[in-house]
Write a structure and sequence with these properties.
Layout: E1 3-5, E2 8-9, E3 16-17, E4 23-27, E5 44-48, E6 51-55, E7 71-75, E8 80-84, E9 96-100, E10 103-107, E11 121-125, E12 130-134, E13 146-150, E14 153-157, E15 160-161, E16 164-165, E17 169-173, E18 178-182, E19 194-198, E20 201-205, E21 208-209, E22 217-218, E23 222-226, E24 231-235, E25 247-251, E26 254-258, E27 261-264, E28 271-273, E29 277-281, E30 286-289, E31 302-306, E32 309-313, E33 316-317, E34 325-326, E35 330-334, E36 351-357, E37 364-371, E38 375-383, E39 388-396, E40 399-406, E41 413-421, E42 424-432
Parallel strand pairs: 1-40, 3-30
Antiparallel strand pairs: 2-39, 4-35, 5-6, 6-7, 7-8, 9-10, 10-11, 11-12, 13-14, 14-17, 15-16, 17-18, 19-20, 20-23, 21-22, 23-24, 25-26, 26-29, 27-28, 29-30, 31-32, 32-35, 33-34, 36-37, 37-40, 38-39, 38-41, 41-42
Length: about 425
């Protein structure tokens, strides 16, 4: 039979698209303001009105770094950064934030003098340029939580503290200056996730769990929160696969998620920072890959959107905590028009046989699919807990098709390989030793 090498790319037939769109433009570094540090990680980023606001953070990924309370604003009209009033709660890292009207709200996180886990919350009035303390966060003190806005209500949830990872979820109403507990996040405890509001719904996904473990679990799941029903619904998994410490923003009817680390090496030291960006369409429940960030791959960066453009900057780049470089560059993302799918992108009943080898496998595994027609299939690899490990699009040609997956970073255990086309699927399993 005719043998054809399978073309592999991230994505899925009905849930993912590889059409790369959008344009990145580097803007002025944030250290162009007089007192801004030359680089930071784990900062808060908010889009309020016609400006973006960035503040707090730390200048090191390990050991004793300098914790900051500074806040800067970016004006897209002039292309300049300006120094604003410092955060009212003092130095802070891994805080959560959201914006309502002309105010930004920042709280939780840790500081260098009191506690690595705080629950105070503060409001910044962009009109008066002043911070004022509001009601403390309704849940336990924590860091690395997510925050976003739906309508006139702010939401904060997940994160971690000295007792472990968290899944509780809270709503803040500025009209009453009060917090109300809502349904716990549907994906379970985690930290390092992303959160964003799109239209009248909220979304949380990715991240990792637990904090203290020889082998932490990295997530790719993505969940929708309906404030009217107070319920969570799992949606299509993040198109880029497993991810933690990623960045996110929303523009109009779409959400954007990218960057971050996709896994931790078997040595429990090595990181794998990424530079991809994916657009989520809630109406179609699909992910579309956008143009990769031209700058360094990074994790722990911040993101916000203003006037129809998204912004991502700061963070750290490097394969480990002790060898990472803290960044100070900033980038603007302008959405583009998605390219149409290729003519053969419709899924058909075309698979005759499907198997993987060797079994057991170690650093790689071979894929074999015999097809009776050309088409696009989706390979979904999951572990025994149902977590997605890899998603690949396979461009099949009639006859024998083969490819090799690199599996050196996968942990030992049983994996399920499911090859799907529209109306049909074939599944096999194999053991990683």
């Amino acid at each position: 039979m005719k043998k054809t090498l399978l073309a592999l790319c991230l994505g899925a037939c009905s849930l993912f698209s590889m059409a790369q769109t959008g344009t990145w433009t580097q803007i002025k570094d944030i250290d162009s303001t007089p007192n801004a540090p030359s680089g930071k990680i784990y900062v808060v980023g908010l889009g309020i009105g016609a400006k973006g606001y960035v503040g707090t953070g730390v200048n090191s990924t390990h050991g004793a770094g300098v914790f900051y309370r500074d806040f800067e604003s970016y004006d897209p009209g002039t292309g300049t950064w300006s120094e604003d009033a410092a955060f009212g709660g003092g130095s802070r890292v891994d805080a959560a934030g959201f914006a309502i009207g002309s105010k930004g709200y920042v709280g939780t996180g840790g500081d260098s003098t009191v506690s690595p886990w705080r629950k105070d919350f503060w409001a910044y009035d962009t009109v008066t340029g002043a911070w004022s303390q509001i009601a403390d966060f309704g849940g336990a003190a924590r860091s690395s939580a997510v925050g976003f806005t739906i309508g006139a209500i702010g939401y904060v949830g997940t994160g971690a503290n000295q007792y472990g990872d968290l899944s509780d979820f809270w709503a803040y109403d500025p009209a009453t200056n009060s917090w109300a507990r809502k349904a716990d996040f549907g994906g379970g405890p985690r930290y390092g996730a992303v959160g964003l509001g799109i239209g009248g719904k909220g979304y949380i996904g990715t991240g990792n769990d637990p904090v203290e473990t020889p082998t932490p679990t990295f997530f790719s799941d993505f969940w929708e929160y309906d404030p009217a029903a107070d319920t969570w619904t799992r949606k299509a998994d993040f198109g880029g696969g497993t991810r933690t410490s990623a960045s996110a923003f929303s523009i109009g009817a779409y959400g954007y998620v990218g960057m971050g680390n996709d896994s931790l090496g078997s040595d429990q030291i090595t990181y794998y920072p990424q530079k991809d960006l994916w657009q989520y369409d809630p109406a179609a429940n699909t992910w579309t890959r956008q143009t990769d960030l031209p700058g360094s791959a990074r994790w722990g960066a911040t993101g916000f959107s203003v006037s129809g453009n998204g912004y991502i900057g700061l963070g750290a780049s490097g394969a480990c905590n002790v060898c990472a470089t803290v960044l100070h560059d900033f980038w603007q993302f302008s959405p583009g028009v998605a390219a149409p799918p290729p003519p053969d992108s419709g899924c058909h009943h075309i698979i005759d046989t499907f198997f993987v080898y060797p079994n057991p496998f170690h650093d790689h595994i071979s894929i074999r699919a015999d097809a009776n027609a050309a088409g696009v299939a989706v390979l979904l690899v999951t572990d025994v807990a149902g977590r997605v490990v890899a998603i690949k699009v396979l461009y099949l040609q009639p006859g024998e098709n083969s490819a090799v997956l690199e599996t050196g970073r996968w942990i030992r255990g049983l994996y399920y390989f499911n090859l799907r086309v529209k109306g049909d699927s074939k599944q096999v399993k194999a053991l990683k030793e």
